[in-house]
Amino acid sequence: MATSNNRTGDFVQGTLDMLILKTISRKQLHGYAIAVAIEQRSDNVLRVEEGSLYPALHRLELAGLLESEWKLSESNLRAKFYRLTPQAASASPPKPRTGTASPPPLRE
Fold first, then answer.
1. Helix, strand or coil for residue 18?
2. Helix, strand, or coil here: 4?
3. Residue 3: its pLDDT value, please?
4. Secondary structure of 29-61 in the HEC alphabet?
5. Does pLDDT of 98 surpass 60?
6. Which residues is 70 bridged to in the sheet?
7. CB 45 within 8 A of CB 62
8. What does the domain layout of the chain look like in residue ranges?
9. How many CA atoms lie less than 13 Å away from 14 in the CB half-sphere?
10. Cβ neighbours around 63 below 10 Å, total
11. What is the pTM of this model?
12. What is the C-alpha to C-alpha distance for residues 82 and 10, in angstroms, rounded to an integer?
């Protein structure tokens, strides 16, 4: 059973990473705006909680796929904005593994 849970966790983590990268590929966003964008683009099917989002953003930064800087948000609060690194922007999207469920499509 542990193997199954690990596979599910890997799938969810990889899917979240792809959703974040796709969302940030459009423009720089802060964490909360990333979560809102994913929820809106999935027609409210996907909800990204803080406990998943911020560790994923940190992991992607450590992997060299995201860069961040502190700026003022639209509500005039200091927020950390994320953008793709040149390495991430030029990387081809990962191919889905066969035999795994796909997340719901995101609206453009």
1. helix
2. helix
3. 42
4. EEHHHHHHHHHHHCCCCCCCCHHHHHHHHHHHH
5. no
6. 80
7. no
8. 9-90
9. 15
10. 12
11. 0.74
12. 23
Rounded to the nearest 5 percent, the helix, strand and coil shares of the chain are 50, 15, 35
Mean pLDDT of 95-102: 52
Rounded Cα gap, residues 23 and 8, in angstroms: 22
For the segment 13-62, what is each residue's pLDDT rounded down to a tens digit? 688 999 999 999 989 999 999 999 999 998 988 899 999 999 999 999 99
- How long, in residues, is the chain? 108
pLDDT at 4 (0 to 100): 43
User: CA triplet 61, 99, 10: central angle to 5 degrees?
Assistant: 30
Look at residue 71 and tell me whether its pLDDT is greater than 70. yes
Q: Reduced to 3 states, what is the DSSP secondary structure of residue 5?
A: helix
CATH of domain 9-90: 1.10.10.10
